[in-house]
Hints:
Elements: E1 4-16, E2 19-26, E3 29-35, H1 37-40, E4 48-52, H2 54-58, E5 66-70, E6 85-87, E7 95-97, H3 108-112, E8 121-124, H4 131-136, E9 144-149, H5 160-167, E10 173-176, E11 185-186, H6 190-199, E12 205-210, H7 227-237, E13 241-245, E14 248-249, E15 259-260, H8 262-271, E16 277-281, H9 285-295, E17 303-307, H10 312-317, E18 324-325, E19 328-329, H11 334-349
Parallel strand pairs: 3-5, 8-12, 8-13, 9-10, 9-12, 10-11, 13-16, 16-17
Antiparallel strand pairs: 1-2, 1-4, 2-3, 4-5, 6-7, 14-15, 18-19
Helix pairs in contact: 7-8
Amino acid sequence: MIRWRKGEVVGIRREWPGAVELEVTVPEGTCRALAYPRLVGRPEPGDEVLLNTTALAMGLGTGGYAMVVAVPNRLPEDPDGPGHLVKARYTPLQATVLGADEQDSPFHELLREADSLEGMPVVVADLHSALPPILCGMRPLPRVAYVMLDGGALPAWFSMACAKLREVGWLAGVVTVGQSFGGDVEAVTTHTGLLAAKHVLNADVAIVTQGPGNLGTGTRWGFSGVSAGEAVNAAAVLDGRPVAALRISEGDTRERHIGVSHHSLTAYGRVALTTAQVVVPELPGEFGERVRDQAELLAVRHELVSVPVDGLYEALLDSPVRLSTMGRGLEEDLAYFLASAAAGRHAVTLLG
């Protein structure tokens, strides 16, 4: 299940808040490795490191790093301070964090009886790569919180996009829920995560997606993005206004993802049991007709909202982070990014 290696750090490649990318020598040669200093301390050149090289050996695109498990000769200090939520539970790297909803939190009283999002728009998308284009579509940019589900990466620190979007002020904060951790705010469930976005971060809009690294099996139900349907349910039951962003592709080579992905059709059409506003971008030509026809399958339960895409390409060009989905950039799969931006465009129209 795990490929273990010992290695030696020979250099620091780059770093961003919460993560350090290293160059490490292992018996097979040199590789990229990623360390989360809050978990293992900060490795330095010359340090021996214990690595999990499983993802590297598998050639995973998103997670193709050797992961630093420990710096055995220079362990970090014991943590101090409050916090009783254990995340990545019962794994060797389980971590204790302070949850906004736990008893020791200064926000516990605020959240103990909190039960409503008070009509806050909640944009739900399948992939983490939808986060930047959704924000690009929001003009003027409101106060936005990102609620990160645990279907992909568990540490929010893995996301360079989150770090940059916080830095430039496009995100008011990140809320990590379920088994995910490392956000500005920690929460136990999607429900308390959404309530924390509203009442702790004072967000006008929340965006909900998985962390980086969607898991799919090519089966109808075997993909981590089913959580998008569950997020629609959570937003609706808390008196939010769910806005569903469709996963659309014109550049994917897999038939099940061309046009409206089967992920969206299953998550919104079968898993979501409450009504959302499903944003259908007004794309041109035969491909646009295909998208509209496929989206009609969701009209049984949801309200389909047609949103123009004029001006969104220019807005996407202004993204402060690199736009990429499944290894494809803006020009290689424009429809995907336009669909996400259209969801952001519609969400801001719901703000009173």
